[in-house]
Design goal:
Radius of gyration: 25 Å
Shape: globular
Number of strands: 15
Strand content: 5-15%
Number of helices: 18
RNA sequence: GGGGGAAUGUCCCGAGCGGCAAAGGGGGCGGACUGUAAAUCCGCUGGCUAAGCCUUCGUAGGUUCGAGUCCUACUUCCCCCA
């Protein structure tokens, strides 16, 4: 793949930005892309009420696809999520209820419009849901029309299955069928929308290539597969995990400020990679930023944070996060729009213990943890370390923008605002 | 259907002669050093109205002054035989 020189803008951009892990046929796909004839889809599971940062990567591929004159499809997995994808998982997840899946689907839908332009034009993005066809299929017809093209021998050798078998972990029949459903989707989309490419993470390679194969056997036009590398940080950790959990894309699950902070904390060694994947800055600009050494690389991290946040949450929110961070970390002040928790004045007047104040602010989980953090020197009130767990806060402490500034560690700050 | 084994601190793995809030890792969090990075070092990693009290070892009973540890039944998982 690295020795292949694409002629199409689409593959050239993906390649130079580091999106490509595997492709079923570079030359064939390149020829289609050069003509603007690629119709590509990415499927999104409805397992949670928000997509996460891993999905952001595939959204960026769809973005470049559209920018280079091709057509993106976002497939909501309203049907496949009812089965549950075993890929990359070493045990069965609990089955989700249909109501839960539908609710997740509604919550997820909105995010794509941030990056893609939807509509009816040739290169406009289209959203479709496999719940439109999968639940309607008939068992026997399905077996005759589709099932006969699948070799169980081959299915057993797929990584997603093999892994379970080797580890002697249970795999139920419903999960075993996931790849059939996903393969069928690819064929269905090729018929309905002329889709000819499916993209996804590297763990989807097996599922995607099964679809390519099924298409050939069922006589569709040629289908292609393209996957992205598994995202890890330079020190080897899986990307997208924080103390609070996953890095969600929906603002109500993970605020633009937190999102900005996530990128700001990137390891030095990852800055260039992430700039290429998660911003749309020109390559020469990225090359310049990447060269910054020592403390200067912090400038590059700010650009990364702001550009990535602007892409997802809009420039205004990104600049606000940048400014909040500047005041908080560089000017040593108190930004008025730090995360804020309201508290009744009466409670403050009665004397609120520091420990419970930190619990109320959501910075620590329990008084016990707060107590331990006081020991460790991790808590601060109005930027002054808490040394005595007994002290109480009063309205007189509301000296920062009319609120009490509580800090946990170096990075987490909350304003406790009396109301 | 028969025989054998396993379930531990709700993030994971994992020790645990009847005295156990329970060894040790990993992960995570905090501190120091730095640059809101990495690496390194140190501390913490059940709850509370906190020198005390309460709740934890698959579930429910039992033996015992005392049970994660012993007994019984049940649940789930794994292995072997049919």
């Amino acid at each position: 793949m690295s020795d292949f020189t694409p002629k199409s803008d689409f593959l050239r951009i993906l390649q130079e930005r580091g999106f490509i892990h595997q492709c079923s046929d570079f030359a064939g796909l390149d020829a289609l892309a050069a003509k603007g004839d690629v119709v590509a889809y990415v499927g999104y599971d409805c397992t949670a009420p928000s997509l996460h940062i891993g999905n952001f990567l595939s959204m960026m591929m769809l973005y470049w696809l559209q920018q280079s004159g091709n057509k993106p499809i976002t497939l909501m997995g309203g049907g496949t999520t009812r089965i549950g994808d075993p890929s990359g998982k070493d045990e069965t997840r609990a089955l989700r209820t249909i109501a839960e899946i539908d609710a997740n689907k509604e919550a997820i839908k909105g995010v794509f419009a941030k990056v893609l332009k939807f509509g009816t034009g040739k290169t406009d993005a289209v959203m479709i849901d496999n719940a439109e066809w999968l639940p309607e299929l008939h068992w026997i017809d399905m077996l005759r029309d589709v099932g006969r093209h699948f070799s169980v021998n081959r299915m057993l050798s797929m990584d997603s299955v093999k892994l379970r078998l080797e580890r002697e972990q249970e795999m139920s029949f419903i999960e075993f069928n996931y790849m059939i459903a996903q393969s069928y989707d690819f064929v269905e989309l090729s018929k309905r929308l002329g889709c000819n490419l499916q993209m996804g993470g590297s763990d989807q390679w097996g599922n995607i290539i099964m679809g390519v194969d099924l298409g050939r056997r069922m006589g569709t036009h040629q289908l292609y597969a393209l996957t992205t590398p598994l995202l890890t940080t330079a020190s080897g950790a899986k990307m997208g995990k924080t103390a609070q959990g996953a890095v969600w894309l929906n603002a109500d699950a993970f605020s633009p400020y937190d999102f900005w902070q996530y990128w700001r904390s990137t390891e030095d060694a990852d800055v260039g990679k992430f700039l290429r994947l998660f911003t749309i800055l020109p390559m020469d600009e990225i090359a310049r930023l990447e060269k910054l050494g020592g403390a200067e690389i912090n400038e590059a991290k700010k650009v990364l944070a702001t550009e990535a946040t602007a892409l997802l949450h809009g420039r205004e929110a990104a600049l606000a996060a940048l400014e909040t961070a500047r005041i908080t970390f560089e000017a040593g002040g108190t930004a008025a729009d730090l995360p804020t928790v309201e508290i009744a004045v009466s409670e403050l007047e009665a004397g609120l213990g520091v420990l419970s104040a930190f619990v109320k602010a959501g910075l620590v989980a329990s008084n016990g943890e707060a107590r331990r953090q006081v020991q460790a020197g991790g808590l601060r009130v109005n930027d002054r370390p808490v040394t005595n767990p007994q002290v109480a806060l009063s309205p007189a402490d509301a000296i920062n923008a009319g609120a009490i500034k509580l800090s946990f560690g170096k990075k987490k700050h909350v304003l406790l605002r009396p109301v």
